[in-house]
Amino acid sequence: MRSFFFKISVALFFVVCLNLANAQQHAPFYNDIQDFKRQDSIYPPPKEAILFVGSSSFTKWKDVQDYFPKYKIINRGFGGSSLPDVIRYANDIIIAYHPKQVVIYCGDNDFASSNTVTEDTVVERFKKLFWIIRNGLPDAGIAFVSVKPSPSRARFLQKEEVANKNIKTFLASQKNTAFIDVYHLMLGDNGKPIPSIFLSDSLHMNASGYAIWKKAIEPYLEK
């Protein structure tokens, strides 16, 4: 009888494992993460680097290393991601690299994903990601690039300002952190996003937008 139940238990265990594996393969951005892993197997990433992680504003910054030639940069932005996606893959694309600093840009897709996502939702999601990183990499610096104002998402500007303010307050209470404000640098005298620093989609930035980010980010990068 014991042998029978043991066999049943083993069979159930493998079924559960198989279902978990299948579920993971169908999770959003699974293929992107696997592409990162394949890339790492061919070209091992540098040690003691600065990791940029988050959504498409980092993904599209293909030449980010050229903007910061004095630093070793690993870019692991994956387009369209929101904070829960970065949380889901934190062990794969953050902890695994053992970076000396993690620079995060994420949050605007959270607001765009659902009208039910509030400022508090984004702040709590960020805090969850923060503690995953802090617990996994206790000595690493953590910097957050403020949620940017985009012309195509002007309806979220007020929410973004509140979320940025509250994340800044939270980071000020933690050691070895930085809040990098790009939000206000991307506004014109009229208080609206500057159209000329964006691509035709009015969401992603052109070289002029990234020049603003370079100027804002570089003073906070760890030597």
Secondary structure blueprint with pairings:
Blueprint: H1 2-25, H2 30-42, E1 50-54, H3 56-59, H4 64-67, E2 73-77, H5 83-88, H6 90-93, E3 101-105, H7 108-113, H8 119-136, E4 141-145, H9 157-172, E5 177-180, H10 207-217
Helix pairs in contact: 8-9
Summed up:
With 223 residues, the protein is α/β, with parallel strands linked by helices.
Which features would summarize this protein structure in a list?
alpha/beta; 223 residues; globular; five-stranded parallel sheet; Rossmann fold
CATH fold-type name: Rossmann fold
How many domains make up the 3D coordinates?
A: 1
Name of the top-level CATH class: Alpha Beta
Distance between the termini: 64 Å
What is the number of helical segments per DSSP (H or I, 4+ residues)? 10
Helix/strand/pairing category: alpha/beta
Name of the CATH homologous superfamily: SGNH hydrolase
**Strand arrangement in the largest pleated sheet:** 2-1-3-4-5
Q: What are the low-pLDDT stretches, counting only 5+ consecutive residues below 50?
A: 9-23
Structure description:
This protein is α/β, with parallel strands linked by helices and 223 residues long. The chain has a single domain, classed as SGNH hydrolase (Rossmann fold, 3-Layer(aba) Sandwich), CATH 3.40.50.1110. Helix content is 48%, strand content 11%. A five-stranded parallel beta sheet has the order 2-1-3-4-5. Helix 8 runs parallel beside helix 9. It is globular and about 45 Å long. About 7% of the residues have low confidence.
